[in-house]
Amino acid sequence: VGKYQLKNLKGNTWIIEAPANIGLYTEDNITTIIDSGNDKEAGKQILNLIKGQNWVLKYIVNTHSNADHIGGNAYLQSNANCRICATKIEAAIIQDPVLEPTFLWGTLPLKELRNKFLEAKPSSVTDIIDNEGRIADTQLEAIALKGHFIDMIGVRTPDNVIFLGDSIFSKEIIEKYPVFFLYDVQEYLNTLDKIGALQADLFVPSHGRVSEDLTELIEINKSNVSNISETIINICSEPLNMEAVLQKLCGHYNIKLNCSQYVLVGSTLKSYLTYLQEKGLLEYYFESEKMLWRRKL
Ligand SMILES: [Zn+2]
Questions:
Q1: Which of 35, 55, 164, 205 could form a disulfide with 69 if both were Cys (CB 3.0 to 4.6 A apart)?
Q2: How far apart are CA 97 and CA 44, in angstroms?
Q3: Among 128, 180, 214, 159, which residue's Cα sits nearest to residue 27?
Q4: Which pTM was predicted?
Q5: What one-character DSSP code corresponds to residue 273?
Q6: Could you report the average pLDDT of every consecutive run of 10 residues in the chain (297 residues)?
């Protein structure tokens, strides 16, 4: 974690630029933050910056439960006694973060997967919120942005700044890690259309730069999905099991696997298999106790 800085975006809306950007909204010295950074160290720096302004941290709103967005929760809750808001299913993982490596591996996770990138420290969600509408008794509004994760939200502040969570990724990230995690490919595409129609003065992706206009970035994100889909369909010109498709996909995109990458890229590939099967572009069958995927003619 580098040295964090507080930057005003507009009115009462602020940002701490970090590997996963942190949003802040302060009115009458009462602060709500949107996501909490990677870990305890991030939490410490966030709290110091808030205290330095004589603000009081009252709420953390988590856009979703991935460790890089909730990593500061535990430190902040025990040191500032703040409330934590999240949608119901994301709250389950925030409270019992072992569910994250469990979900990725599919059962009792390997010990190597129980690392801080995949499993944050537990914290208590005090406010289960709807994925649309006013968030607890804050002035903030939730916007459902499903796709990257199960019930992810964006957050609009009264300054008409929208924090987008991981609903859209920067060009740099897509070039470096095109096969980033997706839970539901179709919902991710629907969400890209949805954010394209939102009116706001500023948009803040968690992993990307603040922007006034998302048009170009939405197209980059969409065409990345088309490229990956086409690549998988081509790989499945010959029937292959998931592991073999994964190997070829990694070859195509020059992805090197370790244990964490294996479950992240592997799960994302399975999300694409579900999506392409539902679209009638791929089908599976069983042969010699192998589940084989092939292009549907
Ligand atoms: Zn993220």
A1: 35
A2: 20
A3: 159
A4: 0.96
A5: H
A6: 90 96 98 97 97 98 98 98 98 98 98 96 98 97 98 98 98 96 98 98 97 97 98 98 98 97 98 98 98 94
- The residues, any chain, with a CB within 8 Å of residue 228's CB and separated by 6 or more, are 178, 179, 249, 272
Tokens of 288: 């010699």
For residue 89 the two structure tokens come to 């299913």
CA of 26 to the centre of ligand 1 (A): 23
Give residue-wise pLDDT tens across range 31-71: 999 999 999 999 999 999 999 999 999 999 999 999 999 99
Q: How far is the CA of 68 from the centre of ligand 1 (A)?
A: 6
Q: Which residues of 97-128 are buried (b: 16+ CB within 10 A; e: fewer)?
A: bebbbbbbbeeebeeebeeebbbbbebebebe
Q: How far, in Å, is the centroid of ligand 1 from the Cα of 50?
A: 22
Tell me the CA–centroid distance for residue 165 and ligand 1, in Å. Answer: 7
Q: Residues 67, 97: contact at Cβ < 8 Å?
A: yes
- In the prediction, which pLDDT does 297 show? 76
Ligand 1 center–CA 22 separation, angstroms = 11
Question: What is the CA(242)–ligand 1 centre distance, in A?
Answer: 25
Q: What is the model's pLDDT at position 170?
A: 96
Phi and psi at residue 238, to the nearest 5°: -105, 140
The one-letter amino acid code at 230 reads E
